[in-house]
């Protein structure tokens, strides 16, 4: 089987829309679309409809369906069956969900497709040169299951998500920004949960695969949806917005990140601005007036603008650190922030204003906030052998590193402040100077000791020590964990952070393991 086989001249083995009544020219006959064009949410994506949607987009090669438990081409129509929800890992799917079997760097999803079929999943995967000779043909399959073959399964996934979203008339908020988008999404999902069932992006599944998977989880039970959108290049947010069709868009901020692709801060601003440019005129753009790019974003959207900031904007807010979290004042109201750092106060402000844009009142928002749970490795405060550890290890860029260091220094405690950093990735030609400058800035916020991990991160220590800071360097994560065990004491406060590729969460895991043995 070969990825991206030759395109066929039309679908094989699938009836055209005119014979089945599900073609692109007959919307009133489609499940999920009422006669007259109204939207009717349905709990399951019917396989016949899914095939027709892909056919209309030129993304279907053939459908294989289960006949008497054996996979075979359909004779006339796609008989019965369908799916509800989708995923890329068959181990984490429930029967009746769609397994999107893609070739990855470490594994090929097609290798797991036969077992997924037998377990009761529909499959979306790439075609072979001759679909009639597809390796899945003849595989044992649960009744009501089958396989959708596409010359471009990634594009097919997006197509299915777009069509499924169109069949669900649910108010949707999209969140993007250089920093804080996942935490803002988590805050917003909790706030909206005070007024009904909410679909929200899991973790940070915010790219061209994650957003479609999120949208395919929509059901009639969801009263609202929160979709996180990430990007590393211009054009990506625009494509995701076409799938999600948000009526409310939140931009948390713009800062230097992914510069290898965006080029410079102006490129970042343009990329984030694609979200508000996509909003309808009756929508709402929730924008950080203190961020670079604010004026540009206002000029890109026809939606109503709700602005917020500490120095300008319609809604002013202030922050006060309290123990392991903080309090913010917004429009005369006080809100407890369950995460440390002023930047997390900003994230909650954005979420509150987006919730208000969807019509929630203060009581509903507060009820939802009480149920807030942060995503792993994003500003969580842990106690490891008497040390207070701020686990913000999921990712890093210059602005988020300094913000997290300030949050560490504001945490209650009398011990030293120790910052453990891995490198910051995707900074392009300016990477060396940005790492040096980040170290210099850390020397101004009250950090007592900087530990850098891995060769690329050493530059931050050079900048830090050049400004009078005290620092150490470790070759890898295990060495950093051993350094923490040997050189910190109960009462010390420790921040661990780095780019995703630095895998800095392993420092905390190793440190906890060492501490548990002592």
Structural notes for this entry:
With 518 residues, the chain is an alpha/beta fold. It has three domains: 17-160, 3-Layer(aba) Sandwich (Udp-n-acetylmuramoylalanyl-d-glutamate--2,6- Diaminopimelate Ligase, Chain: A, domain 1), CATH 3.40.1390; 170-369, Mur-like, catalytic domain (UDP-N-acetylmuramoyl-L-alanine:D-glutamate ligase, 3-Layer(aba) Sandwich); 380-517, Protein-Tyrosine Phosphatase, Chain A (Alpha-Beta Complex), CATH 3.90.190.20. It is built from 17 helices and 23 strands. It has helices at residues 17-20, 47-56, 113-118, 153-166, 181-192, 210-215, 236-244, 259-262, 265-277, 294-300, 342-357, 362-369, 398-410, 431-442, 458-466, 477-487, 505-517; strands at residues 45-46, 62-67, 70-72, 82-83, 86-87, 98-101, 122-126, 146-150, 172-176, 198-200, 224-228, 248-251, 284-288, 304-309, 315-322, 325-330, 333-337, 380-384, 387-391, 417-421, 449-453, 470-474, 493-497. The chain is globular, with a radius of gyration of 25 Å. The protein starts with 16 loop residues before the first helix and ends with a helix. Residues 1-40 have low confidence and may be disordered.
